[in-house]
Design brief:
Oligomer: heterodimer
Order of helices and strands of chain A: EEEHEEHEHHHHHEHEHEEHHEEH
Strand order of the largest sheet of chain A: 6-7-8-3-9-10-12-11
Shape of chain A: globular
Order of helices and strands of chain B: EEEHEEHEHHHEHEHEEHHHHEEH
Structural class of chain A: alpha/beta
Bound molecules: adenosine-5'-triphosphate, adenosine-5'-diphosphate, iron/sulfur cluster, magnesium ion
Strand content of chain B: 15-25%
CATH class of the largest domain in chain B: Alpha Beta
CATH architecture of the largest domain in chain B: 3-Layer(aba) Sandwich
Helix content of chain A: 25-40%
Largest sheet of chain A: 8 strands, mixed
Distance between the termini of chain B: 29 Å
Shape of chain B: globular
Radius of gyration of chain B: 21 Å
Number of strands of chain A: 12
Largest interface: A-B, 47 and 45 residues
Number of helices of chain B: 12
Structural class of chain B: alpha/beta
């Protein structure tokens, strides 16, 4: 049985302009010790998905329906205090901007020690020792000194590493990292990704890595879930998604990317049109208004097609060789 | 592309004073730009890459005279513009313009798209009445928007569309030269390519010259003819695109290129990358000698005492590094 299984998740927000369905019937699963990448453009529902798993959706948001099985139990059915226990002990989360989740008036050490005391039941001194140990693990130089620094005394990369230290100090089975390197420079990003990989090998935690950077996904994830307009449009191994994408949005995304491994002056092929407006979603395929392969039936609800070997696509035409057809047009 | 130098920047510096205490005592300087020299030839796109805080935006603003330099000279179209008057600066804006990173913050939310795009025409008295109206519509068309957008407000537009509005506004005065400061960084990947293609088409059609600022090396490689690499207010390497990406010489350029994740799972697993240790130091107290030395895998004694000078290693490939100079790196 999978460690995490999300079934038909629907999360909505009540806004001035009506109800926004941020996540619209999403299903996926993740095995213990694996890394799943979730990619998609801004507003596609990546963060709302992770906040739903953590049950951190507040008004005006609401989880309308679905099930989130974690280690055999439906998180959506747990009492609040049971869920708090899961959040601290079993599932940890790190965010894009560590400043928003670090308390500016407590030292880094106090914050990590607090987590350790709460979840591992250590006393004051032991907790501080563990905090130093964790900082050393995430390669903060002279951790015995830096443990007494306040968050603003750390650089962006160090804060993100401190967040990772805090998230991992309670040995979670699942780590959700929402754009953990987006605010960082590439040389620092490389350090943080390497660190996450290493700690995963050591602790065996499963990771959900949310990002809009396809390079980061290719580099770190075994499986990839592509989201568009609040739902999965394609799912597969990194190899399937990058080498044999079957859904036109995934194909378009890869074609529109300037990449270091392509000829420098190759013209980019943009995806036409604008990202979807969640207030005015088309009745059928969410990508239809921008899709060059659109047919009449694309205005009807699109089922998921199993392409074999775990490769899934939500597209009426995903079994056709669309890119070859496109080239011939 | 000609050999004519459109912009020539020599030993440009910008120090921002840092003050502390109730009396605002001057305690230090942020050396945002610390002795930078480069040229931009007519018709080319010079890419300026560097990590956050390296001084990219500051250089762009200095060149446009939106910010006063601490020292150094800037020549544009052969003329020294370092100390020109406010009136002359206004004239200069008809020749050079800027496109900003943030398509959300850079447009006045209370002005219609038509007002935003036509404002420079009014400021510079370029066209009036019906002619101004027609020129505005023409500008919108040029960037892929329509006349039906004229009376709408920025908040009704997506990020990519707003960036098009910013481009139309910059083009209004028919400039020769445009500083593009991270023009696609805030956009979704699927929209970035639209704007990059637009910028390329416009350059070709209108014979524009760009200084293209970005932290994204893949984007810079795509759009630039030459590339300059900036670190803590200093340029470390300048070369033609192919030389810089295929044969980078400066250890920082090499590390930067190696750190970029490539969207191809098979390439990645095969490739072992050089990981840079340490954080980027602050521009308030840059390290002595070569400011990269605390993170540099090639550093030796000389690096911490003597600042390396920019040297041409052949064909206009300029590098500032002792290990390149003494042949350790070839
Ligand atoms: N008005 C100012 N006052 C004080 N320091 C400043 C000011 N503007 C910029 N700086 C400092 O100058 C340095 C260079 O800043 P700049 O904005 O040019 O960087 P950048 O390369 O454009 O970075 P980014 O990629 O984050 O946009 C930074 O250390 C910054 O904090
Ligand atoms: N607190 C909120 N109130 C209203 N709408 C929200 C809220 N949080 C998210 N949304 C909306 O839900 C959609 C998905 O958002 P999100 O999951 O944050 O996207 P991303 O994929 O960029 O992480 C967006 O349209 C967003 O505007
Ligand atoms: S279902 Fe139709 S519109 Fe949607 S991606 Fe497939 S071909 Fe395009
Ligand atoms: S001068 Fe020395 S420290 Fe600087 S980049 Fe070259 S080898 Fe490294
Ligand atoms: Mg998000
Ligand atoms: Mg900047």
């Amino acid at each position: 049985m999978a460690l995490l299984e999300v079934r038909n998740l629907r999360t909505t927000f009540q806004t001035e302009d009506g109800v926004v369905t941020a996540v619209n019937g999403l299903s996926f699963s993740l095995d213990a010790g694996q890394t799943l990448g979730i990619v998609g453009e801004s507003g596609s529902g990546k963060s709302v998905t992770s906040l739903s798993i953590m049950r951190l959706i507040d008004r005006p948001g609401r989880i309308e329906s679905g099930e989130i099985f974690f280690d055999g139990r439906d998180l959506l059915k747990l009492r609040d205090e049971e869920m708090r226990h899961v959040r601290g002990h079993r599932i940890a989360m790190i965010f894009q901007d560590p400043m928003t989740s670090l308390n500016p008036v407590l030292t880094i050490g106090e914050q990590i020690a607090e987590v350790v005391r709460l979840h591992l039941g250590r006393n004051h001194r032991e907790a501080r020792e563990t905090a130093i140990e964790m900082l050393r693990k995430v390669r903060i130089p002279s951790p015995e000194k830096r443990v007494d620094d306040y968050p603003h005394q750390f650089s962006g990369g160090m804060r993100q590493r401190a967040m990772i230290a805090m998230a991992l100090s309670c040995n979670p089975q699942l780590l959700i990292a929402d754009e953990p390197t987006t605010a960082l420079d590439v040389t620092i990003q490389a350090q943080v990704l390497e660190l996450m990989n290493e700690l995963q090998r050591e602790t065996g935690a499963a990771i959900i890595l949310i990002t809009h950077d396809l390079g980061v996904v290719a580099e770190t994830c075994k499986d990839v879930l592509v989201m568009y307009g609040g739902n999965m449009v394609e799912y597969g191994s990194a190899r399937q998604i990058f080498a044999e994408p079957r859904m036109p949005y995934t194909q378009g995304l890869l074609a529109s990317l300037p990449r270091l491994d392509a000829p420098a002056n190759a013209r980019l092929t943009p995806i036409p049109g604008q990202p979807p407006n969640l207030h005015r979603m088309p009745p059928g395929c969410a990508f239809a208004p921008r899709c060059t392969y659109r047919l009449e039936r694309c205005d009807e609800i699109v089922p998921v097609t199993d392409l074999g070997h775990g490769h899934l696509a939500r597209c009426w035409r995903c079994t056709e060789n669309l890119q070859a057809a496109g080239a011939a047009r | 592309m000609s050999d004519e130098k459109l912009l020539e920047v020599t030993d440009l510096k910008k120090y921002f004073p840092v003050s502390a205490g109730v009396f605002g005592r001057h305690v230090a300087d942020v050396k945002a730009v610390d002795g930078v020299s480069f040229t931009v030839r007519k018709g080319e796109t010079l890419g300026l890459v560097g990590e956050s805080g390296s001084g990219k935006t500051t250089i762009g603003r200095l060149v446009l005279k939106l910010l006063e330099a601490t020292s150094g000279t800037i020549r544009f179209e052969g003329r020294d513009i370092s100390d020109i008057s406010a009136r002359q600066t206004r004239m200069l804006r008809r020749r050079m313009q800027i496109i900003f990173q943030d398509p959300y913050g850079s447009l006045n939310p209370r002005m219609t798209i038509g007002e935003i795009v036509s404002e420079p025409l009014a400021i510079h008295g370029i066209a009036k009445g019906k002619a101004r109206q027609e020129r505005t519509v023409e500008l919108l068309r040029m960037v892929g928007l329509q006349s039906s957008h004229l009376n709408r407000y920025p908040n009704e537009f997506s990020g990519g569309q707003r960036q098009r509005v910013g481009i139309a506004r910059a083009l209004a005065v028919e400039p020769q030269f445009i500083v593009c400061d991270e023009p696609v960084s805030a956009l979704d990947v699927s929209i970035q390519a639209q704007v990059l293609n637009l910028l390329e088409d416009l350059r070709e059609r209108l014979g524009l010259t760009y200084l293209f600022i970005s932290h994204d090396l893949s984007v810079v490689r795509h759009i630039s003819t030459r590339v300059a690499v900036l670190y803590l207010g200093k340029i470390f390497e300048v070369a033609d695109r192919s030389a810089l990406y295929e044969h980078p010489l400066h250890p920082y350029t090499q590390a930067l290129l190696a750190a970029i994740p490539v969207p191809n799972p098979e390439v990645q697993s095969a490739q072992k990358r050089v990981l840079l240790s340490g954080d980027v130091p602050t521009a308030m107290a840059p390290p002595s000698g070569c400011r990269f030395h605390p993170r540099c895998p090639f550093a030796f004694e000389r690096c911490s005492v003597e600042e390396p000078a920019m040297r041409d290693v052949g064909g206009g490939h300029m590098v500032a590094c002792h290990a390149v100079e003494n042949g350790t790196i070839q």
